[in-house]
Amino acid sequence: MGASGAVGQFGIQLAKLLYNLHVTAVSSPNNFELVNQLGADEIWDYAKGAAGLIDDYSNKKFDIIFDVIGGELLDASAKVLVDGGVITHIMNRGTNGADGINIIINIIINIIININIININIINIISQIQGTI
């Protein structure tokens, strides 16, 4: 959720390019074309709200939900998650540039762990990068 923002754009591309996942992006209609060009397979209008999310996806649940916005849609996400699925959320409110880099590093770590693709070399490299910030 939050697909058209910088972190969401990064998440779409990471999910598609590195893991070839099916991506359902959550955005406003104004940004549908952008998230489609980034690789989203499906786009859902966040203005439908929590009730709309549950109505539209209660029979088509998600394995992973990556949320960068929070709020009512994050709260409703558990109702559209498969048993054993994972919700990853990043609350990005009022950060500066250095915090933004740490958020992106944490996103990478969360995605790698949450889809059970743990590569010790990548974790070591990310830790070394974090140590230089």
Question: What does this protein look like?
Answer:
This protein has one domain (6-132): NAD(P)-binding Rossmann-like Domain (Rossmann fold, 3-Layer(aba) Sandwich). It is α/β, with parallel strands linked by helices and 133 residues long. Helix content is 48%, strand content 17%. The chain has a two-stranded parallel ribbon with strand order 1-2. A two-stranded parallel ribbon has the order 3-4. The chain has helices at residues 6-17, 32-37, 49-57, 72-77, 97-114, 120-132; strands at 24-27, 42-45, 62-67, 81-89. Residues 92-97 and 117-122 have low confidence and may be disordered. The chain contains 6 helices and 4 strands.
Largest beta sheet: what is the strand line-up?
1-2
Q: What is the alpha-carbon Rg in Å? A: 15 Å
Please tally the β strands and state the result: 4
CATH class value: Alpha Beta
Helix content: 40-55%
CATH topology: Rossmann fold
